[in-house]
Write a structure and sequence with these properties.
Strands 7, 8, 9, 10, 11, 12, 13, 14 and 15 form a 9-stranded mixed β-sheet that branches. The chain is of the alpha+beta class. Helix 1 (about 100-115) packs parallel to helix 7 (about 340-355). About 25% of the residues lie in helices and about 20% in strands. The chain is globular and about 55 Å long.
């Protein structure tokens, strides 16, 4: 079935906050491209224009050209009828990539890998909470009792939500999202689903679609799913861990030395990730509420350190066969934009590879006990860190400016909202 034959079609691209922005169109009207203002990919989390943005009044709020990605029409199984989404990304009239499009930011980084004859393979592990629609702790669907205790890797807790997970995995299959294991995580009603290693752009596409899907299926089961970094006080937060390796033109993993330590290139990539991490805080913690998760000793790394098979560090080299040697970047929250997170992580790794820098010794034991270079410790400090020159070698300056303006506007908006009342403003979108 072609895209033009679907009854209910949406065309959309992802904005700087990871939100899908677009329109519903008749299938017969869908062609190779569509128009939408450039400014739409640079609105705040409430969906409002950015005051003073050069993309709005100063430019006449000009249109960009939405071009479909290579994904085609993706079913939206949580909606009634024959509903499909055609993912797009933004260009100008001449066909030049729009620098403010987060998918274009990732493409820009991946093009630099491709110029070396390399392909990045990536995967995400994404955590989320299921909540009652009243925003409280989720009830056990079998007993009706609220879940209030941690229950790490509990099969029983997974089984209580079997109808939800059955629908979820059926939807993954329909959408072509390669979901692997689901686990019960530390928080009450908290779960994680791992996605398969694949080309990095496809991994980011799948992560963006995944978040939309989980929220939609949860609504059909009278629940709310949230990827907020810390939706429940005194419970573990939601992360999005990124795994990646790099293949050369012969399909060999350039991190693999045949042993357990990995190649010098692996260490160069780690050094790049650590060096850029403080300046990149906003990509990993994009909202004031994101910083509730970044608490030392709470399974969310706050210091720039690395180690082998150590879950207290920010950059982990997992155990496993040498051919699968990879880096796991553990800093990002579940509330992040997958395209920007992968662009930040991979761009920093490439900086380290190109500079040939080496990291400090790997951490053995508890990294939380060490004095380490720290992430920015507040939202306003993370916004200010966007001026760090280390980011200019990864991101287009226009994107950094758009992101800075967006976050400054959100910072002003949330300053008028008591911290305890942030959740109702974020639950529906994150």
């Amino acid at each position: 079935m072609t895209a033009n034959n679907h009854q209910s079609l949406r065309i959309a691209a992802v904005d700087l906050n990871g939100q899908w922005r677009g329109k519903r169109v008749p299938g017969a009207k869908v062609g190779a491209s569509a128009r939408m203002p450039f400014s739409v990919l640079n609105v705040d989390i409430f969906g409002r224009d950015i005051e003073g943005s050069p993309l709005v009044f100063a430019s006449g709020d000009a249109d960009g050209l939405l071009q479909p990605t290579d994904r085609g029409a993706v079913p939206m199984p949580w909606l009634d009828g024959d509903a499909h989404l055609v993912p797009h990304w933004m260009f100008d009239e001449s066909g030049q990539a729009f620098a403010g499009d987060p998918r274009q930011a990732l493409a820009r980084v991946l093009d630099r890998f491709s110029a070396k004859g390399w392909q990045v393979m990536a995967a995400t592990e994404i955590e989320f909470h299921l909540l009652s629609n009243a925003q409280g702790p989720i009830e056990n669907p079998v007993t009706g009792h609220a879940l209030v205790h941690d229950n790490i890797l509990s099969l029983n807790e997974l089984d209580q939500f079997e109808p939800f997970f059955n629908d979820l995995y059926a939807s993954f299959a329909a959408m072509g999202i390669p979901a692997q294991a689901a686990t019960s995580e530390a928080g009450p009603g908290q779960f994680e689903i791992d996605l398969t290693h694949q080309p990095a752009m496809r991994a980011a596409d799948d992560a963006a679609l995944f978040k939309m899907l989980v929220k939609g299926v949860a609504r059909n089961h009278d629940m709310a799913a949230t990827f907020m970094a810390k939706p429940i006080t005194d419970a573990p937060g939601n992360g999005m861990h990124v795994h990646f390796s790099v293949l050369d033109t012969d399909g060999r993993n350039i991190f693999d030395d045949g042993g357990n330590q990995g190649t010098a290139v692996l260490r160069h990539a780690i050094a790049g990730c650590l060096a850029a991490m403080p300046a990149q805080t906003l990509f990993f913690a994009p909202f004031g509420a994101s910083f509730d998760r970044l608490v030392p000793g709470a399974h969310a790394p706050t210091g720039a350190a690395w180690g082998f098979d150590n879950r207290t560090v920010a950059v982990r080299v997992p155990a496993g066969p040498p051919a699968a040697r990879r880096i796991e970047h553990r800093v990002a929250g579940g509330d992040t934009n997958p395209y920007l997170v992968l662009a930040a992580v991979l761009g920093a790794a490439l900086q380290g590879i190109e500079a040939g820098t080496m990291p400090p010794a790997p951490v053995i034991g508890d990294a939380y006990d060490l004095k380490l270079p720290q992430l920015a410790d507040s939202w306003d400090q993370a916004i200010a860190a966007l001026a760090d020159p280390i980011l200019f070698g990864i991101f287009h300056t226009d994107l950094l400016d758009n992101l800075r303006r967006t976050k400054q506007q959100e910072l002003r908006s949330f300053a008028d909202i008591p911290h305890d009342n942030w959740m109702p403003h974020l639950l529906e979108v994150l």
